[in-house]
Write a structure and sequence with these properties.
Structural class of chain A: alpha+beta
Strand content of chain A: 15-25%
Shape of chain A: globular
Strand order of the largest sheet of chain B: 1-2-10-7-3
Distance between the termini of chain A: 6 Å
Order of helices and strands of chain B: HEEHEHHHHHEHHHHEEHHHEEEEHHEEEE
Number of domains of chain B: 1
Largest interface: A-B, 16 and 21 residues
Order of helices and strands of chain A: EHEEHE
Number of strands of chain B: 14
Shape of chain B: globular
Largest sheet of chain B: 5 strands, mixed
CATH architecture of chain A: 2-Layer Sandwich
Largest sheet of chain A: 2 strands, antiparallel
CATH topology of chain B: Cytochrome p450
Strand order of the largest sheet of chain A: 1-4
Strand content of chain B: 5-15%
Distance between the termini of chain B: 65 Å
Radius of gyration of chain B: 22 Å
Structural class of chain B: alpha+beta
Radius of gyration of chain A: 10 Å
Oligomer: heterodimer
Helix content of chain A: 10-25%
CATH class of chain A: Alpha Beta
Number of strands of chain A: 4
CATH superfamily of chain B: Cytochrome P450
Chain lengths: 62, 408
């Protein structure tokens, strides 16, 4: 699957890194880093990350 | 190309920082002293530690993992042990790291914005029903006639309990709120009784949904599962009691502060009545200039340096949400304007790992209520003397008499 975070919307709260730690992580500067091409087996947790993002900045693209 | 991106900051001597007496009941986060301190620099001293005043630094420190949420030791600081202290220690807000992440993963999905969208028509009906009660008179006490029943009945709707039971939610939450004040220890017996009452309520709800699952919020919590992990019975009880307590006061207070903001901007009130689609930005703007949570508290986990200032482990750091939200260095034309676009996010819901769990609910119920209030309470004005809590910590109105053109 393809994951895109709109970085103009991202507020770096890190809720996605809590929901899907295999795909999203907060670096030492507390900024988001993510894998834009995670394995399809991680779909459920990526969907959850997109759902709980306070800024609704995460998009899953086929 | 150089690898280093960290700018050099001149060293700040804490002794040179301005002092803000934040524990004084007459202190206001909107005072000239705070504005002067914000012009002088990004930080001030307080009796507890530090106050952070500018947008950039509040934004960074809110998400900086060298700090933890700052009120975790409040019961211990007050010499309080027993059931209340145990409940407090179990709060999502007072957990950190993996313990926090685990519980947040289990709780977050129940607050999905997709699932909440279905409740919006009920919020509309509730707002109209409450206004029907006082619109013919052209006057009301906004807190007791609207903000309190609205906030408590939204929780009743969320929990799927009869809405007429709202006074119980309001009463127990208000009593628990005494735990955040100076009379905490004296009031402990009452506070413990209120907690027991909320637990008994939560116990019934959990038992009911375990026996009769529905398509609703409490069922989602009861069934919440991540991999093979679920909440324990105690975690469910603790969390439900926290959600009732955390959702009531904050929403009631924020609604009163919204009215205060619009009383100062009658043109914007009129505009909102004519353009209900501005309800969402109205909520964001109100929370930027008049947040109910005027500061977010953090505590330094280790000694560290931040932009030239040495911060010692254990230091209490107050991140001033309103001061940051109106900081002209980051927010262009910071005056209240519900038509403004491209504003940087405010900090009225905190931020980082502890970002408010219930923000989609609060955003939804307030963005529905404000345009209906604006349409049905035209020519809004103060109808008597209002009673406000100190403009610091968690703030809001105790009473707010209003007058307006009747019959809308």
């Amino acid at each position: 699957m393809k994951v895109r975070v709109d970085m103009t919307m991202c507020e770096d709260h890190g809720q996605c890194a809590i929901a899907a730690p295999d795909v999203f992580r907060m670096n030492d500067e507390s900024k988001l880093e993510y894998d834009p091409n995670p394995d399809d087996s991680l779909l459920a947790e990526v969907e959850e990350a997109a759902d709980v993002c306070p800024a609704q900045a995460i998009f899953i693209e086929d | 190309m150089t690898a280093t991106t960290t700018p050099d900051y001149p060293s700040i001597d804490a002794a040179d920082l301005p002092y803000l007496p934040v524990a004084d009941p007459t202190f206001s986060v909107q005072s000239a002293a705070v504005r002067e301190a914000r012009d002088a620099g990004w930080c001030a001293r307080t009796p507890y530690g530090l106050a952070i005043l500018r947008y950039e630094q509040v934004n960074r420190l809110l998400k900086d993992r060298r700090l933890r949420q700052g009120s975790w030791a409040w019961p211990q600081h007050n010499g309080v042990e027993g059931p209340f202290a145990q409940w407090w220690a179990g709060w999502l807000l007072n957990k950190e790291g993996q313990d926090h992440a685990r519980l947040r993963r289990l709780l977050n999905p129940a607050f999905s914005p997709k699932l909440l969208a279905a409740l919006s028509p009920r919020f509309v009906a509730l707002a109209n029903e409450l206004i029907d009660g006082f619109a013919p008179a052209g006057q009301c006490d906004f807190v007791s006639d609207f903000a309190e029943p609205y906030a408590a009945r939204v929780i009743a709707i969320m929990l799927g309990i009869p809405e007429q039971e709202w006074p119980k939610i309001a009463e127990d939450s208000a009593t628990l709120g005494l735990a955040l004040g100076v009379t905490f220890k004296q009031e402990l017996p009452r506070i413990e009784a209120a907690l027991e009452s909320l637990f008994a309520y939560a116990e019934q709800l959990i038992a009911d949904r375990q026996a009769h699952p529905k398509d609703d919020f409490v069922t989602r919590l009861v069934q919440a599962q991540r991999d093979d992990d679920r909440m324990t019975h105690q975690e469910l009880l603790d969390s439900l009691a926290l959600l009732i307590f955390g959702g009531f006061d904050t929403t009631r207070n924020q609604l009163g502060l919204a009215i205060k903001t619009f009383l100062d901007h009658p043109d914007q009130w009129k505009l909102l009545a004519e353009h209900p689609e501005l309800g969402g930005t109205a909520v964001e703007e109100v929370m930027r200039v008049n947040p109910a949570v005027t500061w977010v508290t953090r505590e330094a986990l280790d000694d560290f340096e931040f932009q030239g200032l040495a911060i010692k482990a254990g230091t209490t750091v107050h991140l001033f949400s309103e001061s940051a939200g109106t900081d002209p260095r980051t927010v262009e034309n910071p005056q209240f304007d519900i038509t403004a676009t491209g504003r940087p996010p405010h900090f009225g819901f905190g931020g980082g790992a502890h970002h408010c769990l219930g923000h989609f609910v609060a955003r939804s119920d307030m963005s529905v209520a404000l345009p209906i209030l604006a349409r049905r309470m035209p020519d809004l004005r103060l109808g008597g003397e209002a009673d406000w809590m100190p403009l610091s910590g968690n703030t809001g109105a105790n009473s707010l008499p209003l007058a307006f053109s009747a019959g809308h």
